[in-house]
Amino acid sequence: STPYQCTICQSEYNNLHGLLTHYGKKHPGMKVKAADFAQNIDINPGAVYKCRHCPYINTRIHGVLTHYQKRHPLVKVTAEDFVHDVEQSNDIAQNGIEETSRI
């Protein structure tokens, strides 16, 4: 498998430069830098993204986008739509995330 993967659309790259270039072109709203990937850490650790049409939440933008495709197929959304919708997961009971994050 390739070592670098976009956390939004799951595109894969063989090197960090390719991934950072991808973010700049495809997801300009995401502020990423090489250091974000040094430890393979989440770009926005502790973030929670919410569906705007039902109680669904997920800790990854990709999870919310997949949810929209399955549950709200007529609503067109992109990763950039959620960049500013971040809430911190410590504001939400941890067991609540498990219950509502099933697609």
Automatic annotation (TrEMBL):
<protein>
    <submittedName>
        <fullName>Zinc finger protein 462</fullName>
    </submittedName>
</protein>
<dbReference type="InterPro" id="IPR059059">
    <property type="entry name" value="Znf-C2H2_7th_ZNF462"/>
</dbReference>
<feature type="domain" description="C2H2-type">
    <location>
        <begin position="6"/>
        <end position="27"/>
    </location>
</feature>
<dbReference type="Pfam" id="PF23225">
    <property type="entry name" value="zf-C2H2_7th_ZNF462"/>
</dbReference>
<dbReference type="InterPro" id="IPR013087">
    <property type="entry name" value="Znf_C2H2_type"/>
</dbReference>
